C-alpha cells in the first residue's frame, strides 16, 4: 500500500502505518477529549461505578486521555487484524503485511481465490478477538474500580478501560454486520459459497455490502459522522472491486491463452502505407496488427498510433513510421488468461501477440477475454 511506512515485524509479518493513521490519532484524541464529560457519565451509567473527575477534568488531561484511548484502540484493531492473519497463515495463505489506516487495519494477503472452508474461521477470528479484548477491558474496569483505593487514579483507569471495553464490543458487533467486504460479509460469502459457485456468492454478498454502504452513507450524512461516510465509501468501492476480481479469476482460472487466442493473425508489413492499414481496419474490424518483417515480429500498429499523426502526413506515411517498436510485449500460449489480462491492465494495451519458439502463433485481445468471461458466466 502506498504512503505507508514499516514500523516493525511481528511473527515475521511486516507491520505498516499509513499516512492517514498519523492524521487520525490527533483527530480522535481531540474528539474523545472534547466529549469527555459525556462519556464519563455514560461509562458511570453502564458500569454502575462512580468515577472521580479530579484528574480527568483538569487542563489538557482530557486530550491526553483521548490520545491514550485512541492509540490503545488502534492497538486493539491491530490485534484483530493479527488474528485474521495468523489463522490465514495457519491455513497456508501468505501474509504480505498488516497496515493500519484511517478507519482500522488491513491485512494484505497473497490470495487469488478465497477458499470458503478457510475464509469462515479466518473472517470470524477478528470479531471474536475484539469481543475477547472487550471482555478483558470490561473485567479490568471493574477490578481497578474496586481494587484501587485512590479515587482520582481509579477514576482515570475505570474511564480508559471502560471506554475500551465499549469500543471493542462495538467493533465486534459492527464487524459482524453482513456488509461485504467487512468480516460479517465474508462469513456470509463463505456460507453462500457452499451452496453456489464462488463468483455468484461473492456477487450477492457484494450487492448486500453495497446496500449497507448506502445506508451507512445516508446515516453518516444525517448525523454529520465523517468517519461513517468514509467507511461507507470504502465498503462500496471494496465490494465492487473484490466482486469483479473474484468473478474474473474464478471463471478464467483454468483457461490458457492458447485456448482462446485467434489463430489467424492478420499482420502487416513495415512498408505498407497508413492508408492501407486504415482500409484493413475498416474491412476486418481489427484495430491493431502485429508488424512482421521477413518472419520476425518487429512491432505493433494500433488505431491509437495512427491517431497520433495528422491527416496530411498520414498520406505519405508507412507502418514503420508510426508503429510501436520496443519492447514488444508478447505472451506464451501456455500462459493463463488472467496473466494476459493482468499484463493488459498494467501496460494499458488491448492486445498481445502470442509467441511460441520465436514465432507468432496467435493474438489475444481484451475483447476476446471479455467474451470468454461472458460465455463462462452463463454456465
Ligand atoms: Zn476484521
From TrEMBL:
The lineage of its organism: Archaea, Methanobacteriati, Methanobacteriota, Stenosarchaea group, Methanomicrobia. Its cofactor is Zn(2+). InterPro entries: CBS_dom, CBS_dom_sf, Peptidase_M50, UCP006404_Pept_M50_CBS. Coiled coil: none annotated. Belongs to the peptidase M50B family. It is found in: Cell membrane. It comes from Methanocalculus taiwanensis. The chain crosses the membrane at residues 21-40, 60-79, 86-108, 120-144, 156-177, 212-237. This is Zinc metalloprotease. GO terms for biological process: methionine biosynthetic process; proteolysis.
Amino acid at each position: 500500500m502506498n504512503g505507508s511506512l514499516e514500523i516493525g515485524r511481528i511473527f515475521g509479518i511486516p507491520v505498516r502505518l499509513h499516512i492517514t493513521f498519523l492524521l487520525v490519532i490527533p483527530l480522535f484524541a481531540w474528539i474523545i477529549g472534547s466529549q469527555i464529560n459525556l462519556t464519563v457519565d455514560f461509562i458511570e451509567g453502564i458500569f454502575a461505578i462512580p468515577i472521580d473527575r479530579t484528574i480527568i477534568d483538569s487542563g489538557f488531561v482530557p486530550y491526553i486521555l483521548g490520545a491514550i484511548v485512541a492509540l490503545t484502540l488502534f492497538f486493539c484493531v491491530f490485534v484483530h487484524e493479527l488474528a485474521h492473519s495468523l489463522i490465514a497463515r495457519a491455513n497456508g495463505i501468505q501474509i504480505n503485511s498488516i497496515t493500519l489506516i484511517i478507519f482500522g487495519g488491513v491485512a494484505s494477503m497473497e490470495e487469488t481465490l478465497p477458499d470458503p472452508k478457510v475464509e469462515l474461521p479466518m473472517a470470524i477470528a477478528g470479531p471474536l478477538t475484539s469481543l475477547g479484548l472487550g471482555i478483558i477491558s470490561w473485567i479490568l474496569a471493574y477490578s481497578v474500580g474496586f481494587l484501587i483505593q485512590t479515587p482520582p487514579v481509579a477514576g482515570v483507569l475505570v474511564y480508559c478501560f471502560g471506554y475500551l471495553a465499549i469500543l471493542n464490543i462495538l467493533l465486534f458487533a459492527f464487524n459482524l454486520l453482513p456488509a461485504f467486504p467487512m468480516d460479517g460479509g465474508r462469513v456470509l460469502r463463505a456460507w453462500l459459497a457452499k451452496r453456489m459457485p464462488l463468483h455468484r456468492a461473492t456477487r450477492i454478498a457484494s450487492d448486500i455490502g453495497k446496500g449497507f454502504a448506502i445506508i451507512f452513507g445516508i446515516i453518516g450524512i444525517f448525523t454529520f459522522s465523517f468517519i461513517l461516510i468514509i467507511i461507507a465509501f470504502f465498503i462500496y468501492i471494496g465490494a465492487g472491486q473484490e466482486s469483479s476480481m473474484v468473478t474474473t479469476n474464478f471463471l478464467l482460472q483454468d483457461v490458457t491463452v492458447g485456448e482462446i487466442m485467434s489463430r489467424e493473425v492478420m499482420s502487416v508489413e513495415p512498408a505498407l502505407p497508413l492508408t492501407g492499414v486504415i482500409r484493413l481496419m475498416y474491412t476486418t474490424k481489427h484495430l491493431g496488427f502485429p508488424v512482421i518483417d521477413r518472419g520476425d515480429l518487429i512491432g505493433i500498429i494500433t488505431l491509437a498510433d495512427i491517431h497520433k499523426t495528422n491527416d496530411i502526413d498520414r498520406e505519405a506515411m508507412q507502418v514503420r513510421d508510426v508503429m510501436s517498436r520496443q519492447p514488444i510485449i508478447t505472451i506464451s500460449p501456455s500462459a493463463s488468461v488472467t496473466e494476459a489480462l493482468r499484463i493488459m491492465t498494467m501496460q494499458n494495451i488491448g492486445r498481445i501477440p502470442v509467441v511460441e519458439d520465436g514465432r507468432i502463433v496467435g493474438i489475444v485481445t481484451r475483447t476476446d477475454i471479455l467474451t470468454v468471461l461472458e460465455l463462462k458466466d452463463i454456465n
